[in-house]
Amino acid sequence: MRTRTLFLCLVLLCSQLAIGQDLSPRKAYVNLYAKMAVKEMKRTGIPASITLAQGILESGNGQSRLATEGNNHFGIKCHEDWKGKTMFVDDDKPNECFRVYRNPVQSFKDHSAFLASRSRYDDLFNLDPRDFKTWASGLKAAGYATSPTYAEKLIRIIEAEELYRFDAQVIKPAKRGTKAHPRYKMTPAGAGYVLLEEGESLEQLAFDLGRKTPQILRFNEVHMTWDPVPGDRVYVTPKKTDTARKLRKISTCRLASGEDPWTIAQRYGITLKSLYDLNGWPVGHQPEAGSLIRVQGPKLAEPISGAK
Description:
Blueprint: H1 2-20, H2 25-44, H3 48-59, H4 65-70, E1 86-89, E2 96-99, H5 104-117, H6 132-141, H7 150-161, H8 164-167, E3 185-186, E4 192-195, H9 202-208, H10 213-219, E5 233-235, H11 243-246, E6 251-254, H12 261-268, H13 272-279, E7 292-296
Antiparallel strand pairs: 1-2, 3-4, 4-5, 6-7
Helix pairs in contact: 1-2, 2-3, 2-5, 3-7, 6-7
């Protein structure tokens, strides 16, 4: 309760400052939440312009009852998987159930999770993150809102407030010659990767290489929640599945404490399925630290003995 009170005071103060600077409620909203939207774009790939426009539209510039009392900026209803607090507001039907958050940060994060975790929005993440118009149309087509002009409303807000400038903070113009990336490296198995640099996002890397973020995620066998750090290996071509057939020489390693099969698959540039096949593991098997693991050579019918 104390956190909520402090945040409401902050919103009120910002509103008063905005009035003093002759800012409209919409511009005040952008000033207050733009950094949050940019952070979510870096984390999930959802354009900051879309997040801000939805927040503006769904929350009435942060002044709706849902936003002021429930910190719900995106009109997300309870649904069957919501376990948090709720409030009831008339919407398409009387007295509908909506999610309540501790603060707007929770609301912005849950908005990202809501889009990323539902299959009906999967196609959005194959779109160019700079193409806010197609994203807006995709949201409407996927059923985010019932208004027939929902996409047009979002586009008007983005263009009027130039919200696309926040997308450009994450997806910068590509440099010439980036297709022959100077950091491009190859594993012995033949999978291409780069090492993530300080301040570089997956979205930026994918854009520089002419690929899409979901494609990069598939290459690395991870979900949208993956948060690599500078120095991590990021595969930009598919990892290999033919190590047993083409690389006849047997090669092994030992699993260090804190590692798992995915860590090994990333290190050697082979798919998890190949790693499991090479070692004769059943699906879901988690070897103990110190286990001897085959990463190259003919497949095994049984797991390698002598784990320690």
